[in-house]
Amino acid sequence: MIDRLKKLGLSELEARCYLALHEESSLSGYEVAKRVSVSRTNVYAALRSLVDKGVCRAAEGEPVMYGAVPIAQVVRMLRSEFDENADSLVRELKPQPPAAAFYNWTGEANIRLSLRRMIVNAERSIVVDIWSEDFPELEPLLLEAEARGVNVVVITLGQVRSSLRNVRTHKRMEMWLLKDARDYYVLCDWKDGFIGSFGEGGRNAALETNHPAVTHVLKQAFEHDVMMMDIERDLGPELDRRYGSDYEKLLERYRKEYALE
Fold first, then answer.
1. 177, exposed or middle or buried, with CB in 10 Å at 0-12, 13-18, 19+?
2. CA distance 116 to 122
3. pLDDT by residue (tens digit) across 39-64?
4. Fewer CB near the terminus (10 Å): N or C of the chain?
5. What CATH number corresponds to the domain at position 61?
6. Cα angle at 191 between 194 and 97, to 5 degrees?
7. Which structural domain range is residue 205 located in?
8. Contact partners, residue 166, CB within 8 Å, separation at least 6
9. pTM for this model (two decimals)
């Protein structure tokens, strides 16, 4: 709870004071200090800050009594302030044409935040190619995008169950299971790409780019995957007969001709 209050802009001590006041109708600064086990000087400073932020109320008297503003009112106030500031920024900071760029992301928290930013800002389409083990991480964001009218298409390596309208399962060949990293990509509005891999040992890393060459390659990969899945659906037995159940006959030919690993 303290961490969530800190995300609203409160310090840790302010959050602790707010929770103490939330449990009582009103408390003096001395009583709050006893409950949070912090010096009265620091607590009084925190209470003054909470009052200034509109999160707590003070009733003048001897002593001054403090009370928490109900959290629902606090959240509505902060949302209103945020929306007002955000609207002003959007109006005043005119967007510049984006230059092609590459951004490297490392660390699970940074990658999740960047993926969230890309997905919630998609306006028309989102394509995701991901292993079934990692799909649940993105599914709630994709459902939200679909609900606001974005066309979402997901290709999973392995079966998943989802309420999304367009989920397709790519054939999962046994030789792919030997990899220690699970590659994925996200392509938003056919112009913003995010490529990465999940794996063991803290090796989570990703590349974000709007470079046309990369996004074009991702678009082609999507088109080829969709076409291949349709071909497998329509001609499955014939493909198995000619090329093997996991295309091992083709792969062996490619190893010889192209030094494929």
1. exposed
2. 10
3. 999 999 999 999 999 999 998 888 98
4. C
5. 1.10.10.10
6. 115
7. 102-258
8. 151, 152, 153, 154
9. 0.66
Q: Which two tokens mark 26?
A: 């009103």
Question: Which residues of the chain are under the pLDDT cut of 70?
Answer: 172-180, 200-203
| CB neighbour list of residue 58: distance below 8 Å, 6 or more residues apart | 47, 51, 64, 65, 66
pLDDT of residue 180: 67
42 & 152 share domain: no
* Residues 138 and 227 both lie in one domain: yes
Are 170 and 221 contacting, i.e. CB atoms less than 8 angstroms apart? no
Radius of gyration of the chain (CA): 27
User: Distance between CA 126 and CA 144 in Å, rounded?
Assistant: 12
Amino acid identity at 72:
A
Q: How many domains does the chain have?
A: 2
57 located within any domain: yes
Residue 60 half-sphere exposure, CB side, CA atoms within 13 Å? 0
> For the segment 176-220, what is each residue's pLDDT rounded down to a tens digit?
554 567 889 999 999 999 999 887 655 678 999 999 999 999 999
Alpha helices in 40-93 (DSSP H): 40-52, 71-92
How far is residue 207's CA from residue 204's CA, in Å, rounded to a whole number?
Answer: 11
CA distances from 87 to 117, 154, 187, 241 (A): 18, 32, 27, 61
Residue 36, both tokens = 């949070």
For residue 219, the Cα-to-chain-centroid distance in whole angstroms is 22
- Percent of the chain at pLDDT exceeding 70: 94
Same domain for 127 and 69? no
